[in-house]
Design brief:
alpha/beta; UDP-N-acetylmuramoyl-L-alanine:D-glutamate ligase; 4-stranded mixed sheet; 13 strands
Length: 278
């Protein structure tokens, strides 16, 4: 089972047809849906046929009810309380995303339990779950227990904005303390962390580059794996999370890291294609 610690929030996705007219109107289409990196990874893993557990906190409100109901097939270890979080996702005509997060209750996860790791084969933690408190302490505790049990820990660097706001050296120290086996980054995050990888110490490092080939570096070498093309791309939201789910489930299923990247690309393409059809 893949377990993910982090956010289950409401995404308010705003598709804009033209550059924003600051101080005036810009034509847009607004959609509401389930969001949160950890939640997206879990749902994508279930799509791939792999069991997943979401560990987090959701508001005790109607939005929280809706969010929990949206996690069909996922084992929920969810605390309820406070106000559900929201992320505004601005999507430009090229599909590029700008996110405005308000984590709300999702940052308030406390009192982790050893039982949350029962049956878990890999623990995935987005950096969003490391830099906020008290969820950061809870995630660190779970990562420590996972390492003690021989459960590999995967980290996603999440966001350059997050890295810079939190402090690169501070985040690198926190990541190293989690003893990750896998580090997932996009190209911008990789540029920011490139000279810190030895300090983080992950044996497997994957750099995603959207529609361009991803690079995986591990004991077997360094390999670039082409991405799968998706026609009619309008929104890349969730693609990186689907890639993480595809990679981790294939890797824990016995694939080597290069073949697992192929699985990551395949699942990301499936999620994007479904978004295009909607």
């Amino acid at each position: 089972m893949l377990a993910c610690v982090g956010e289950l929030v409401e995404d308010i996705v705003v598709d804009v047809a033209d550059p924003l007219n600051i101080g005036s109107d810009t034509t847009a289409v607004v959609r509401r849906r389930r969001g949160g990196s950890a939640a997206n990874v879990c749902v994508a893993a279930v799509i791939a046929g792999y069991p997943a557990r979401f560990i987090g906190r959701v508001g005790d409100d109607p939005i929280g009810d809706m969010l929990c109901a949206s996690m069909a097939g996922v084992d929920l270890t969810v605390q309820r309380g406070g106000r559900s979080g929201t992320i505004i996702v601005l999507v430009d005509p090229s599909g590029e995303r700008t996110m405005l997060p308000d984590p709300g209750a999702s940052a308030e996860l406390t009192d982790p339990q050893q039982s949350w790791l029962d049956g878990v084969s890999v623990l995935h933690i987005p950096a969003y779950s490391i830099v906020r408190q008290p969820i950061g302490d809870s995630a660190a505790t779970l990562a420590g227990w996972a390492s003690d049990r021989g459960i590999p820990v995967s980290i996603d660097a999440s966001s350059v904005g997050l890295i810079n706001a939190y402090g690169r050296d501070r985040l690198v120290a926190d990541l190293a303390a989690l003893r990750p086996t896998v580090l997932l980054m996009n190209a911008a995050e990789a540029d920011t962390l490139s000279d810190c990888l030895a300090r983080i110490g992950a044996p497997i490092v994957v750099t995603k580059r959207g529609a361009q080939p991803a690079t995986v570096v591990w004991s077997g070498g360094s390999v670039d794996i082409p991405a799968e093309h998706v026609a009619g791309l309008t929104d890349t939201t969730g693609a990186g999370d689907a890639f993480a789910a595809g990679f981790l489930t294939a890797w824990r299923g016995g694939s080597d890291p290069a073949d697992a990247v192929v699985s990551g690309h395949r699942l990301a393409a499936e999620v994007i294609a479904n978004s295009v059809r909607r």
